[in-house]
Amino acid sequence: MVLKLYSLADGPPSLSCRQTLAALDIPFELVDVNFYSGEHMTEEYAKLNPQKEIPVLVDDEFCLSESVAIMQYVCDRYKPDSQLYPKEPKARALINHRLMFNLTTYYDSIVAYAIAPIFFDYERTPGGLKRVYMAMEIFETYLNRLGTTYAAADHLTIADFPLINSTMILEAIDVDFSKYPKITKWYNEFKKIHPSLWKISSDGMKKIQYFEANRPDLSHLNHPIHPARKAKT
């Protein structure tokens, strides 16, 4: 049975899973979940993921959510000797650290500042941008200290994908991060060295740019957490 990935076309976690599968040359069926019509909020989708979040991987009878877990699983299950997620404990620990840093700090601050105001009733604030730059400063420090070409090694790993897609969001909304030379070089080199993987990111970025310019009305979702944008009068 071919793997199925339930994915959001402009969702960085989904993009990272797609890049992992592509980099490992693992065949899979891509199933687009329509976030904007609320497909992920249905009871049918909740059977796949009670959290009603995207992405979800289905491998025969095995169903897995959470993008980091998905990336780790497909590496271990299908290409256990790949350098994308090496087994050596210290190498793997660094990759796991960068994955967690992205989730808890880097992506978290970027989504709150850049993405939430596109789709829900949130405002971009100087404080929000400060949090983004604080996270970038930390990432810059990690790149300086490690001194490697990529985020966690001198070769591409699954740690790079979510960090690339988080940074891509900033490019999508024209946030200048050129004052972070290590991040800028790493980001631009990824584009040049891995054009097919970058295309997955850039296609997502185009959608984010579209919605940045054309803020959608998602009030019909009746989201349990995020407030709907107030109607214009």
From TrEMBL:
Every GST N-terminal domain range: 1-82
Membrane-spanning residues: none
SUPFAM superfamilies cross-referenced by the UniProt entry: GST C-terminal domain-like, Thioredoxin-like
GO terms of molecular function: glutathione transferase activity
Biological processes annotated in GO: glutathione metabolic process
Family, per entry: Belongs to the GST superfamily.
Protein name (Swiss-Prot/TrEMBL): Glutathione S-transferase
